[in-house]
């Protein structure tokens, strides 16, 4: 059995559609007021809401914002190259005071200079630079230790500075003691003089003289000894006098070395502008200190100061 199709007239369809749309609109908008203008507060709220919906240029988290790429800072300029150290004329023979002009730049500069000279195969010049650390500057403990080690390493590899004994500066090493010590003191003083000449690298020539003093009637030990150094002449320039005591003749040479080190060091400190060597350590060998811590230049200056100045023309001999 077939059902008959019912045709709805078009005007009715249009009316039904219009009624449906009108009903929905009325249901959703019946409470809205389209005639009264919004207040200023409402307009401000709407503006803020609309502005917040747009992407913000300063908000990195906004997916559609254009990322701000900050270029990396330019690299710092390279440091200026260190000025080359002036090594001077390496073809001319150096003198004992060589590299003193570098002392104003401090011990670190002289150490660097000495190391460069060693690398260039200039041990004699390097030794002079190391000595300038010791006698022309005021090195700290580490710098002094470095310089002293280098001097001890280089000195034995080089010839003596003064190869002409006749040009050595004459000095006299004098001692005074009681008669019972005269013989052993004379031998010890002569042996010490040769060792001091070697310590100075041939720069000084030392004569010795022993003066017999009064012996103690009680013959007590240890025996006192007075020691000093002086230059030539009828009225020689002399160091201070140091005294020490010994309880055995075999200890004389070491005591002589110790006293000479103190005499030289004190004289340099009082009468020259050179940096004097520091005091002996308890375990230090005094002859080693006289060889390596009293520089060759200081030996020369010490000996020169004990020589009287030549008289000027017109001065009387009185």
| Count of DSSP strands | 4
Largest beta sheet: strand ordering: 2-1-3-4
Largest sheet: 4 strands, mixed
What is the CA–CA distance across the termini?
Answer: 172 Å
Percent range of helical residues? 40-55%
Shape: rod-shaped
Question: N-to-C SSE series?
Answer: HHHHHEHEEEHHH
Helix/strand/pairing class, anyone? alpha+beta
Strand content: 5-15%
Which residues sit in consecutive blocks of at least 5 with pLDDT less than 50?
Answer: 311-318
Average pLDDT for all residues: 85
Would you mind describing this structure in some detail?
The protein is α+β, with helices and mostly antiparallel strands. 41% of the residues lie in helices and 10% in strands. It contains 9 helices and 4 strands; from the N terminus they run αααααβαβββααα. Strands 2-1-3-4 form a 4-stranded mixed beta sheet. Helix 3 (107-119) runs antiparallel to helix 4, helix 6 (182-199) runs parallel beside helix 8 and helix 7 runs parallel beside helix 8. It is rod-shaped, with a radius of gyration of 50 Å. The termini are far apart. Residues 311-318 have low confidence and may be disordered.
What topology does this entry show?
Elements: H1 10-29, H2 40-53, H3 107-119, H4 123-135, H5 141-154, E1 169-178, H6 182-199, E2 204-213, E3 223-230, E4 242-246, H7 252-271, H8 286-292, H9 296-305
Parallel strand pairs: 1-2
Antiparallel strand pairs: 1-3, 3-4
């Amino acid at each position: 059995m077939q059902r008959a199709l019912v045709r709805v007239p078009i005007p009715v369809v249009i009316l039904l559609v219009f009624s449906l749309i009108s009903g929905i609109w009325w249901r959703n908008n019946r409470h809205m007021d389209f005639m009264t203008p919004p207040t200023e507060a409402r307009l401000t709220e709407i503006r803020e809401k609309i502005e917040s919906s747009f992407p913000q240029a300063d908000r990195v988290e906004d997916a559609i914002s254009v990322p701000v790429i900050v270029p990396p800072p330019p690299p710092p300029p390279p440091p200026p190259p260190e000025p080359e150290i002036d090594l001077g004329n390496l073809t001319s023979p150096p003198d004992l005071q060589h590299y003193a002009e570098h002392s104003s730049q401090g011990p670190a500069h002289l150490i660097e200079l000495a190391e460069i000279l060693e690398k260039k195969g200039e041990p004699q010049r390097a030794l002079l630079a190391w000595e300038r650390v010791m006698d022309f500057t005021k090195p700290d403990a580490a710098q002094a230790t470095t310089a002293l080690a280098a001097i001890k390493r280089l000195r034995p590899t080089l010839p003596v500075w003064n190869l002409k004994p006749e040009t050595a500066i004459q000095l006299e090493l004098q001692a005074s003691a009681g008669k019972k010590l005269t013989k052993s003191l004379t031998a010890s003083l002569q042996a010490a003089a040769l060792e001091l000449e070697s310590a100075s690298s041939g720069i000084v020539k030392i004569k010795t003289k022993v003066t017999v003093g009064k012996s103690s009637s009680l013959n007590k030990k240890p025996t006192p000894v007075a020691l000093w150094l002086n230059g030539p002449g009828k009225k020689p320039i002399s160091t201070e006098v140091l005294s020490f005591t010994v309880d055995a003749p075999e200890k004389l040479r070491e005591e002589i070395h110790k006293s000479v080190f103190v005499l030289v060091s004190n004289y340099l400190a009082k009468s020259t502008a050179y940096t004097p060597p520091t005091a002996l350590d308890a375990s230090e060998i005094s002859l080693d200190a006289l060889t390596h811590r009293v520089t060759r230049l200081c030996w020369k200056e010490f000996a020169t100061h004990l020589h009287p100045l030549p008289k000027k023309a017109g001065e009387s001999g009185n």
